Amino acid sequence: MPEGKVVYITEVPKSDEVKLFEHEPDVMTKQQVADLLGVTLKTISREIQRGRLECFHVGTRVRITKIALLKYVEEQE
Questions:
Q1: What's 60's domain CATH number?
Q2: What's the pLDDT tens digit per position in 49-72?
Q3: Does pLDDT of 26 surpass 90?
Q4: Mean pLDDT of the chain, nearest integer
Q5: Number of domains in the chain
Q6: Rounded Cα gap, residues 1 and 14, in angstroms
Q7: If you average pLDDT over residues 12-26, what whole number do you get?
């Protein structure tokens, strides 16, 4: 019977070492955010309308910053 691996507390990554969305752009479209979260575009629009997900407008286009997305995800936990 194989034995499990012993993991010491010093080997566990600290929360500041885990970088969510590290390779994503700093500013994203609603569709990009929806794809990242695995939800529909309608869900993202609804969360923006409810004030749960911050966004800004460039002309008629809606953009969401990575910081706003991280804040949103943290609040959902």
A1: 1.10.10
A2: 999 999 999 999 999 999 999 999
A3: yes
A4: 86
A5: 1
A6: 32
A7: 73
What does pTM read for this prediction? Answer: 0.74
62-65 long-range contacts (CB < 8 A, ≥24 apart) are: 62/29, 62/30, 63/27, 63/28, 63/29, 64/27, 64/28, 64/29, 64/30, 64/33, 65/26, 65/27, 65/28
**Residue 77: its pLDDT value, please?**
74
Cα–Cα distances in Å, from 19 out to 9, 24, 29, 45, 66?
19, 11, 20, 25, 11
Name the token pair of 43: 């869900």
Q: Tell me which residue range forms the domain holding 51.
A: 21-76
